[in-house]
Amino acid sequence: QELSEAEQSIKLAKLHLANVKAEKSSLKDSLSGLNENIILREKQTLEAMNKDENLANELATLLAEDEVALSEQNKQHQQIENLETKLTADLKKAVREIQNHHRHVRLLKASQHGVKPKYNTHGLKGTLRGLNESLNNIKQRQLNNSYLDDAEDEVENSLSSKSIDDQLRLAGIKTGKHDARAVLERLNANKPP
Fold it and tell me: How many helices (H) and strands (E) does the chain have?
């Protein structure tokens, strides 16, 4: 029964990993779209600087907001990649442990039915103890995964743009939003002669 519970935990961990991978793919698509949008906004702003200063200022404001969003999404993408790597490693380790436990269970069943295995069975009590300890470790990891889910929600909330903007405003730091002048100055500096 403990092995079937562990296998169920593996299925849940695989589902969690699949959700993380899906979120990573979605975020990657969003980053790509945002990059394309920034390139287009820069071209539009450069062109508008020669024709309509108000339009250039409005476009520069949008560009500044997109650049802040791009930075935040890049950080989030890196965190998701790190999480994916850790979950994959943990899952592989758990699968190997369960396979090892299955081998031990088959050995125990063989010894109960009077079948003599081809190798030494003096350490069966130690093996059983190890099996129980490993299953307890798997249960602890499952609990840790539950904590991880809660922590991910907390991280997600702390990474939301409202939270960051509010913290920056309270600290008296410009958020980069509506900082059109800085974008215009940067584009003017990079503008071909």
Answer: 5, 0
Which tokens sit at 2? 């403990």
Nearest partner of 14 among 81, 76, 94, 80, judged by Cα: 94
Q: How far is CA 131 from the centre of its chain?
A: 31
Specify the DSSP class assigned to residue 72: H
Residue 180: count other Cβ atoms within 10 Å of its Cβ. 19
**pTM tops 0.70:** no
Phi-psi region of 178 (alpha: psi -120 to 50; beta: other; left: phi over 0): left
CA contacts within 13 A on the Cβ side of 47? 6
> pLDDT tens-digit profile of 64-102?
999 999 999 999 999 999 999 998 888 888 888 878 887
For residue 18, CA distances in Å to 15, 60, 75, 169 come to 5, 38, 20, 37
As a dihedral over the C-alpha atoms of residue 72, residue 83, residue 167, residue 185, rounded to 10 degrees, the angle is: -20
Query: In angstroms, rounded to a whole number, what is the distance separating the alpha carbons of residues 44 and 49?
Result: 9
Query: What's 178's DSSP letter?
Result: T
Distance CA 156, CA 81 (A): 14
User: Can you tell me which residue has the tokens 């390139």?
Assistant: 39
Q: Is the dihedral of CA 129, 135, 138, 139 positive or negative?
A: negative
